[in-house]
Amino acid sequence: MAVVVRAGAAPLWWAGVFAAGVGVLVPGLTGRRIGVLAGAALFIVAVAVVSTVRRGRYAGLARSAARAGKHDVLQDRAVSVRNWRRGHRWWLLLGFVAALGSAFAVPAAGGLLLAGCGTGLRLKAAWLGRRERAEEALLWVRVDWLAATGGRPAGKAVKAYRSTGIAAGDAAPGGARRRTAVLV
After folding, report:
1. Distance between CA atoms of 58 and 48, rounded to whole angstroms?
2. Nearest partner of 107 among 28, 16, 15, judged by Cα
3. What pTM value is reported for the model?
4. Which of 19, 48, 141, 181 is the 20 to 30 A CA-CA neighbour of 116?
5. Which of 17, 9, 21, 14 is nearest to 47 (CA)?
6. For 71-128, how does the pLDDT look when each residue is reduced to its tens digit (9 = 90+)?
7. Extents of the domains making up the chain
8. Dihedral-angle region of residue 171 (phi above 0 means left; psi in -120 to 50 means alpha; beta otherwise)
9. Spatial separation of the C-alpha atoms in residues 5 and 51, rounded to whole Å
10. How many of the other CB atoms lie within 10 Å of CB of 129?
């Protein structure tokens, strides 16, 4: 489940960093200094908001997690990430274009806002990973409960999470790729 949360972190971060970098090159209406300072403030606010919003819903669903049954369909990490990115690619592109366009008014602010959203998602996935390690169980969302775009792991359709052992699947706690032991 943390995989779905973390899936948008990297595209948002890189789109934001690139848009902010291009935005710094444009002087804008407010000037670079004000644009970068406003962007830094937006970055901090976005990180705080995105990383803390709906934590109560996530915690409640995690507390009521049931053991994954034989008939529960759970996805690989790569499939979940691919589905999320395919389902949200137009929104990512629209956000990137909006961040680039906002650079003509307030340089770098839109890009730093996007990067802050990506960082907030990464922090939320890390928080979920700490919960998974503490409970020694990976949390999963049934595929049929996810939105059609591959997202919303705490949406209305999600009634409860499923849990498996910490070694199940190809994802580590927090949604990262599982590192395999190197054979010597």
Report:
1. 16
2. 28
3. 0.88
4. 141
5. 9
6. 777 788 888 889 899 999 999 999 999 999 999 999 999 999 999 999 999 999 999 9
7. 2-165
8. beta
9. 10
10. 21
